[in-house]
Amino acid sequence: MIRFTSAVAALVMFAGVSAHAETSPHMSISSSGSRAYIAGPEATFTGKAWIDPLFLSPKTPQRASAGLVTFEPGARSAWHTHPLGQTLVITSGTGWVQEWGGERKVVHAGDVVACPPGVKHWHGATDKTGMAHIAIQEIDDSGKNVEWLEKVSDEQYNPVAAQ
Where is the signal peptide (predicted)? Predict the structure, then answer.
C-alpha cells in the first residue's frame, strides 16, 4: 500500500511538472547577489529596513511577488493591507506583528504569519533585536499587492516604552 501511494504521489508530481512545463517553457535562476537590495522607503518604513526583491514582477499567469526584508532593531513597516493577503516567513531574529485593533505579537525565526486579505497590519523588529522575513503576496487584477497607510506611532509600536 505504501508503494502504491508513493507511486501515485510521484505520478501526480510528474503530471504537475509536465503541466507547468507547457505554460512555462524555461526556468530562470536569479542568482544570489544579482538582485540589488533597496532601502525601505522612508514613507512606508520607520528605522532601517532593507529589501531584497526575490521576485516582484511575476509573469502571467503567476501572481505572487516576494521579498526578503531585513529590519534593524526598532525598524518597522507602516500600517498596510494586501488585497489578496500576505504570508510572512520569519527567517531570523525576533520581531513584532500586529493587526489593527489587536495585540502586538512576538514572532521568531521559523514562525509563519498568515494575514488575510484586507486586514490592516504592520510588522518589524523588536526595539532590541533585528528580524528578517520573506514577505509573499499576490498581485490582484488591478496590478496592486499592497496599500500603504499611516506610519505606526512610537506608542503603537512599543506601548511599554511609551509609558
Answer: 1-21
Torsion of CA 114, 119, 145, 96, to 10 degrees: -60
Provide the b/e sequence for 50-86 (b: ≥16 CB within 10 Å): bbbbeeeeeeeeeeebbbbbbbbbbbbbbbbbbbbbb
Residue with C-alpha cell 529590519? 71
Q: What is the pLDDT of residues 97-146, one digit of tens each?
A: 999 999 999 999 999 999 999 999 999 999 999 999 999 999 999 999 99
Instruction: Mark 23-38 as b/e (b = at least 16 C-beta within 10 Å).
Output: eeeeeeeeeeeebeee
For 35, which DSSP code? S
What count of other Cβ atoms lies within 10 Å of the Cβ of residue 48? 15
Please count the other Cβ atoms lying within 10 Å of the Cβ belonging to residue 4.
Answer: 8
As a whole number of angstroms, the distance between CA 134 and CA 156 comes to: 23
Rounded distance between C-alpha atoms, residue 47 and residue 133, angstroms: 16
Domains of the chain with CATH codes: 36-154 (2.60.120.10)
What are the φ and ψ backbone dihedral angles of 86, each rounded to 5 degrees? -150, 145
Torsion of CA 53, 98, 83, 92, to 10 degrees: 20
